[in-house]
Each structure stands twice: as C-alpha cells, then as structure tokens.
Amino acid sequence: MLYGTRLRALALLTAVTLTAGFALAFFYAPMDADQGFMQKIFYVHVPLAIVALCGFVFGGIMGIQHLRTREQRYDLRSYVAIHLSLVLGAGVLITGAIWAKASWGHWWVWDEPTLVSFLIVFLLYATYQPLRFSIEDPERQARYASVFAVVAGAFVPLNFLAVRLAQSYTHPRVFATTNGGLPDKMKLAFYVCLLGMAALYVTLWKYEMASKHTSAQLRSLRRKLGGEDDVAPRGRTAAPSLGTSR
Amino acid sequence: MTRRYGERVALRDVTLTLPAGATLVVFGPNGAGKSTLLRVLSTLLRPHAGTARVLGRTLPDEGWAVRGRVGLLGHAPLLYRDLTGRENLLFHARLHDVALERADALLAQVGLARRAEDKVHTYSRGMVQRLAVCRAVLHDPELLLLDEPGANLDPAAREIVEPLIGAGSGRTRVVTSHDPAGGLADADVALGLRDGAAALLAPAREVDPAQVGALYR
Amino acid sequence: MRRAVGAVLRKDLRLELRAPQAVPAMALFSVTTFVVFHFAIQRGQVEGDLASGVLWVTLLFAAMLGTSRLFVADHEEGGLDGFLLAPVDRTALLVAKAISMFAYLAVVEIVAVPAFAIMLLGPTPDVAALAQLVAVLALADAGVALVGTMVGALAVQTRARDLLVPLLALPLLIPVVIAAAKATTPLLAAATGDVGARWLLMLGLYDLVFGLLAYAVFDFLVED
C-alpha cells in the first residue's frame, strides 16, 4: 500500500488552513478585554490540546485493533499516533505555561484542572517509548505497547474527571465567557485553527507512516537482491518493525 | 508451520505428521529450532504462519483444548526452589485438577518420597530432573514433549523414569536428542532441523546415524 | 477457575511466608519514610491534609516496591510457564495476584498506620473515623492492587523492570491519590469529620474501570 499518495495535496491544505486560522486569530478576532494580546495563544494551545488528546485516544483504538487482529500495521499506526501526540503535548504544556504566565503571573498553576490533567497524561505517555525500548522481542514489544496504549487511552477521560473533581475550577472556559459564549468572530478563528491543527496532525502522521513503510520496503528489497548479509540487522529499537512480507 | 523471532525465522515451513503412540526424535545443533518446535506444540508459543494440529485440535485457536493433554519437559524444570518437592507437585495437581494422591504416588515411583518434604533448592540436579518428570506426567498427558530428557540423569535414574516418559510409556512422544544412535533406537520417525528448516525427515529405521551427524557440520 | 485462583494464591502466600520478599521490605520502607518525612517537612506532628498526604505518599511508594516483586519469582523460576501449560483461564492469575497484592498492602498497613499514628499524627481519630479510614484504605488498595498487577505483569518481561514500574504505575494511580487523600483529610483532622461520599464513589468507579480493563488486557500480557 502506498502511503505517499495525496501527501502533497494534504500538506498544502494544512498550510493553507493553518495560515488562514492564524491570520484570523491575529487580525480578525477581537482582542480579549481581560487578557489582552497574550490571550491569542489560546488559538494555538487549545487546538493543540484537543488534537493531541484525540491522537492519544486514536492510538488506543489502534492498540485494540492490533490486539484483536495481531496485524503489524495497527501497531505502527498506534506508535506514530502516540509519539506525534506526545510532541504536540509538549507544545500544549509550553503554550499553557506561557498563557499562565501572561494571565496569572506564574509559569505553572495548579488551579486549572485541564492543564494539570494534561501534565499527568503527558507523563504517562512519556513512558511509552522507554517501555517499547526495554522489550527486545519485537512481537512482544508490539503487544505490550498496544496494551499500554489501550490502558492509557482509557485512563485519559478518567483522569480528567478525577482532577476536575479535585480542584476548584479557575481555568477560563473557552466556550463560555461571562456573556454566555465565545463571540462569533473568535469562534470562527478558533474553529479554523482547530481544523488546521487536525490537518497538521494528519499530515505529519501520514508523512511518518510513508517514511517508515518506505524504509521497510527498501530493506526488504535489499535483502531479496543481496541476500541476508547485505542488510545490517536492526539493533534494539523502540520503533515497530514492519518485518518481511507479512 | 513457521515461527519468527523478530526478523529471524526460528522455524521455517516445518511440515510433518505423527500418528498416535509413535515417537518422533528431533535432532539438530543448538539454535536449530528444536526447543521452539516443542514450545509451539505445547501451546506456549503461537505459530506465526501455517497451522499446527495437535491431538486433533488446531493451534493457536484451539490451544485451550489441548493444554491439559500435553506434558512438556523443557530445559527449565518449572519448579519453585523455595517450595518442597511435594508442594510443587501439589500446586500443579491443583492447577490440572488431578487427585493429590497421584503426586505422592509419582514421588514414590521416582524415588523421591523421602526427600519430598525438602525444598527444591536442596536437590541435586538429577533429583530436580526426576521431579520435573513427575510434573510433566502428573496429569497423564496423551502427548509428551521432551527436551533432552536424559540430561542430568545417570543410567539408574533413566531406568526409573523410563516407564513414565520412555518408549514403553505408550504415549505419543516428541523427543529432542543429541545422541544419534540412542535417539533413533527409541523412535519411529526422525526429524533433523538445521537453521529452523527440516533438513531430514524420514522413518527412524531408514536413517543412518551418520546422516544425523551431518546436521551438526 | 476458583480452583486455579486458590492454587496460585496458596503457592504465592506460602512462598511469601517462607522467603519473604515483599511484605517486610514494604513495611520497613514505610516506617523509614515516616522518619524521612519528619526531617524533610520539619514537623513533629501533622494533621488534616498534610497528614493525609504524608500517609498516602508513603503507602503508594511502598506499593511500588511490592509491585516490582510481584511476578519476579514466577518469571525467574519458570513458574509462569507451568501456569500457562495448565488448562485454566489466564484471568485466574490476574485475580490471584491482585488478591495477593491486596493482602500484602493490608498487612503493611496494619504496621504502617499505627506507626504513623504514633510517630507523626497529632490528633487521635475516634472509632468512627478509624472505621471510615479502613473503608478508604480498602477501596484504594483494590485500585492499587489492580493497577499493580497489570503493571507488574507488563514490567516483569522488560529489561528495566524496577524503573518502569513506578513510571507507569504512578501516573495511572493519581486518581486514587486524589480521592484517597481528599477522603482521608477530614478523618485525620483535629476536629474529625466524615469522608465525602464522592471520593468513595470515585475510588469505587476507578476500581471498576480498572478491574474491567485488567480483565480485558491481562491475557495479552502473559501469553506468547
């Protein structure tokens, strides 16, 4: 299966949507009365968070599929999804800290349940790659990684619920301000940014999948042409192997 | 049937049939895939390609139906060193839903009755192997998978366990061996593995020990 | 299946009694940690939310010690293969190990909680508060046991076992910490109050969700 098709179109779409979204955020959407210009970071922070969380859950679903069918390709999808979401997650925490500093004067506050929950989820998923790396047998590595993806994916909503219950709630509600909702202009900018982030995620995901498939095919061809000796054995790695013909 | 370990193929397209009550002897150098074959047949490992039919059931899907009817004696004795010999057997007896008295009977049969209440870490290697034999046949399996059963046993001990796991036991057996003459003598079919593939497969009486020796070169 | 659970449980408890690996270490660790806390937070007495926090952090980290050892004996002595060869449901192993872990935690708490009361706790909880504390401990221990069994089974096959257990288990157990700490705070306060029902509910919900999760994925962790 070729993964490289439509990548260019997708990348273009992503670039366009993101640029449009940011332009809208900067020029079209009104300045927030309380928080000023720094509030605009919310157009990056929240879409990143939503897309990252969806990515984690998608990774969990791919994990379920892998366990059910034992097909290698689901494990690869899960792996790429989780590690992309982790990268986005780092972005969420950084932009969140910037926003916190701008809004409340501290780089980190414990009062916002969503950010705290996100930190916990991030810490959990940060163990995904070390976990994979510490298991040598590729089949077992994939299977355990899928179990992790499933458990962690189920944990995400539970965690958000728990932290929210625990803390007094001061995180500015993005969809409801004191006058009952985001003004329309802000809403538009937000949704376009969200769309842009989602497109970015999908594009990056497809790029990475294409890259991995291509390397695997290359190895496979070299092995067929030159025999086993032509291909250096893969050392220990956390990334899923695509194996030979399967 | 094929079994992979990462990119390396541990067992490649091994195909054979064994009738009930017969003995298959498996030869091959270390790393050839003998232990892997036994572990797949015992349901501990799943075949990655192809099918294995054991006792009328297909693996891996029907592995649950096969488990209680197969006995594995591998390199690891599968015994807890801090438990006594008797406690180890009772644990397995409970798992397999076997009458507890059978454990005592087997212990007596292999000559471990006096040491049954001692912890396994005090046993000699021969005694551990004898206890492992008891564990393997405790649930009266129809198929025995024996990985070099004679290892660590002196000739007297080998005679003691012969009725339990030897050719005279009447069970279907798959035995790995490094002894060409001895292995062929007790067997009906011989399989020679090299690098995971079947280099030799024939009725035992038609196989010359020299052919077995050739596998190791 | 009950037979299998019973067999594994007997074996594990007997092994633990005979060659104790987990329980004495966990109990000793708890008491030592109380001493460390005394010096670290520079207090002779704690109460309320601080007391609750010290107690739960200590119990949690002691649990991490126990979790690392949970499957080690089986993995090293090949006992896991012995179980896998038997015609029993794999889930029996999950149930047996979770019960073992719960039992270990209970024994450790029997030592650690009185030690805590003597060494660091200011106010003396009355009988009603103690009864509620037992309930909170029971619910929280169930969650810790379930997560511990899953993480223990996963980690035992890896190379960096002792590192991975806390890294995996602690984030997963944060909801337990949240609920247990909040629930215990009024019990250890100068003027004892009652636990908030919502925290007990949260613990119960957590136990249920993770119980189901563990049941669903455990097979994949032990088979090959």
Can you put this structure into words, describing what you see?
The complex is a heterotrimer of chains A (about 250), B (about 220) and C (about 220). Chain A is mostly helical and about 250 residues long. Chain A has a domain at about 40-190. In chain A, about 70% of the residues lie in helices and about 0% in strands. Chain A has helices at about 5-30, 40-70, 70-105, 115-125, 130-135, 140-165, 185-225. In chain A, helix 1 (about 5-30) runs antiparallel to helix 7, helix 3 (about 70-105) runs antiparallel to helix 4 (about 115-125) and helix 3 runs antiparallel to helix 7. Chain B has about 220 residues and is of the alpha/beta class. Chain B has a domain at about 5-80 and about 140-215: Rossmann fold (3-Layer(aba) Sandwich), CATH 3.40.50. Chain B contains 8 helices and 10 strands. In chain B, the strands form 3 sheets. Chain B has a 6-stranded mixed β-sheet, with helices on both faces. A two-stranded antiparallel ribbon of chain B has the order 1-2. In chain B, helix 3 (about 85-95) packs across helix 4 (about 100-110) and helix 5 (about 125-135) runs parallel beside helix 6 (about 155-165). The two termini of chain B are about 25 Å apart. Chain C is mainly α. Chain C has one domain. Chain C has helices at about 1-20, 25-40, 50-70, 70-75, 80-85, 90-120, 125-155, 160-185, 195-220. Chain C is globular and about 55 Å long. The mean pLDDT of chain C is about 90. Chains in contact: A-B, A-C, B-C. The interface of A and C includes residues 154 and 159 of A.
Residue runs with pLDDT of under 50 for 5 or more positions of chain B: none
List the chains of the largest interface with their residue counts.
Answer: A-C, 29 and 28 residues
What is the CATH C-level name of the domain at 3-78 and 141-215 in chain B?
Answer: Alpha Beta
Task: List SSEs of chain A in N-to-C order.
Answer: HHHHHHH
Secondary structure: number of strands of chain B: 10
| Percent in helix of chain B | 25-40%
Q: Judging from the principal axes of the Cα atoms, what is the shape of chain B? A: globular
Overall geometry of chain A comes to globular
Low-confidence stretches of chain A: 173-180
Number of contiguous helices of chain B: 8
